[in-house]
Each structure stands twice: as C-alpha cells, then as structure tokens.
Amino acid sequence: MPSIFVDSAYYIAVFRPRDQLHARALAVGSSLARDGMSFVTTDAVLVEFLSFVARTPAGTRLAAVEFVQDVRTRPALDVVPQTPALFDAALDLYRRRADKTYSMVDCISMVVCRQRKIRDVLTADNDFAQEGFTVLL
Q1: DSSP β-ladder status, 134-135 and 38-42
Q2: What is the pLDDT of residue 124?
Q3: If exposure means fewest CB atoms within 10 Å of the residue's CB, which of 7, 30, 32, 45 is most exposed?
Q4: Domains of the chain (ranges plus CATH)?
Q5: Mapped to the 3 state alphabet, what secondary structure does the chain carry?
C-alpha cells in the first residue's frame, strides 16, 4: 500500500482547533489511518511546525512539544532524518525552482516524496500541486 506524506500544514491544522482546516484535517487523517495507510514526514517538517508555534505563549509551545513527541512515536509514521545527501538534493531542487516560492522544507519534502514514490500529500500547500503531487486538504 502506498504511503502518504505529512506536511506541516496538516500538523498545524490538527494542532490548532480554530484553524479553518482543523475539522477537514482530522477527518482526512482519520480516514487514511482507518484505511491502514502508512505515513511519512521529515525532521524538517517537524521543525517547521515547531517554528510556526515559536512566538506563542509558553503553554502552547509546551503543548506543541508534546504533540511532536506523540507524533514521533506513532508506529504508522516514518520520520525521515535530515542528512547531508537529502539537504544537497533539496538544495538542488530549490535552485532549479528559483522561479517558485517553494521553501527549503518543501523541497526536502518533495525530494523524499520522489525518492519513496509518494504521490499524495496531507497538506493544503499548492506548491506540492505545482510539482505534480496530489494535495489532500
């Protein structure tokens, strides 16, 4: 069964109950989990999520740490670590897409998706659609 890539937009939506995508993210994620899908993300995505909540009150930051710790222990999720080779491949994509607004984290994610032949991304970020991936939120 194919894997689904999980982007920070999904984690942000799940973490923030008032996010406009919160209910949809929960529903889509739960449906995919019930279907037995496996999930892939990267250390960089988790860093991006934590960076998003960095300027929030201490209680929110601590809740975000617990959220990430919980995410990292899920058996159906593979968290791909940052390596020099992955960084270099993403930097090359970043260079080749200088006309786009892709973040370096997006480029890392896209490289991982291509390496693992993942087509579907749990995100609302249309940068992934520009690269031919299916955006699920």
Answers
A1: unpaired
A2: 96
A3: 30
A4: 3-81+118-135 (3.40.50.1010)
A5: CCEEEECHHHHHHHHCCCCCCHHHHHHHHHHHHHCCCEEEEEHHHHHHHHHHCCCCCHHHHHHHHHHHHHHHCCCCEEEECCCHHHHHHHHHHHHHCCCCCCCHHHHHHHHHHHHCCCCEEECCCCHHHHCCCEECC
Alpha-carbon distance of 118 to 52, in angstroms, equals: 25
Residue with tokens 């993942």: 118
Stated pTM of the model: 0.94
Token pair recorded at residue 8: 């920070």
